């Protein structure tokens, strides 16, 4: 492929147009302030903010925890299956506009069951939106149930058991929430059980936490992907392992910037990780809170770093490779990607 044929002026257009998957997006993190207010009204929930603007102004984070506090508060307006559907449908419309062909979507059931919202309400509402995304928008998707790591492993087991009647509606389990002080190995038994039952395994690690958490995500939890993983850069042996095994890292640049993992996008290590041959790709994490959906992540990151069309191709390719779909589907997307680059003269 002749990547040099694509000038830097045309790069944003290419980034937007190319087909891509999204593998790290928390559906509760796609809840826009306008929808939070609409759902609060629909469900008679009192909010601690006077207006959409006041809520948006509170989105000034200093670290992961400062974000999580406000993110869990926002989710309190979700009560009925239709609320979960509306939230997910709004995401799928954005995904369609960004040429996302496939999304693997995280949800945090414990945030809802703790408020006496039934597991059935959460999963069936989200799942119905996934079905409609396929039939009405042509976007395929699957759900990944995340355990909140600041809670106990016993609570994770209870949650997993509650979700079991809906096991055909989600494909995997993940681990999110406050990372520091909650290493992956805390959840060894529940991940082992999920693996035995045939679920895919992923975990957030190396967002704020040390490379040691990435080692235990791989060797104790036996995850197939690591979410974030940007701290790997501080551990040469880990970088070699990730490259050798092509362990996907679902990187989220705007999230990393907003949560002060890197002072600026220009300081992000995405370019270094790509140049080391790691299977990294871009994701929006919590787009309603971090200032952008997937194409915003692409365009802003490429504007801030010395990245070119060959990097764009690699990121899209990696996003197919890292997805939990059959090989034939990955190849079909790869052909679509090649056709898109050919249209841009590559
Ligand atoms: N890290 C940990 N937990 C989360 C995140 C994240 O980036 N987003 C939503 N829950
Ligand atoms: Zn995340």
If you consult CATH, what is the topology? TIM Barrel
Q: How many domains comprise the coordinates?
A: 1
The DSSP helix count reads 17
Judged by helices, strands and strand pairing, the structural class is: alpha/beta
Task: Tell me what the structure shows.
The protein is of the alpha/beta class and 346 residues long. It has helices at residues 11-17, 33-43, 52-57, 64-74, 81-97, 109-113, 119-137, 153-163, 188-196, 211-221, 236-245, 253-258, 270-275, 287-290, 294-304, 309-321, 327-343, and strands at residues 20-26, 100-107, 140-148, 172-176, 200-205, 225-228, 249-251, 280-282. The protein has 17 helices and eight strands. It has an eight-stranded parallel sheet. Helix 8 links the parallel strand 3 and strand 4 (172-176). It binds hypoxanthine (HPA) and zinc ion. Zinc ion binds at residues 24, 26, 176, 204, 227, 285. Zinc ion binds next to strand 1.
Topology (elements, then pairings):
Layout: H1 11-17, E1 20-26, H2 33-43, H3 52-57, H4 64-74, H5 81-97, E2 100-107, H6 109-113, H7 119-137, E3 140-148, H8 153-163, E4 172-176, H9 188-196, E5 200-205, H10 211-221, E6 225-228, H11 236-245, E7 249-251, H12 253-258, H13 270-275, E8 280-282, H14 287-290, H15 294-304, H16 309-321, H17 327-343
Parallel strand pairs: 1-2, 2-3, 3-4, 4-5, 5-6, 6-7, 7-8
Helix pairs in contact: 1-15, 5-7, 16-17
The structure holds hypoxanthine and zinc ion.
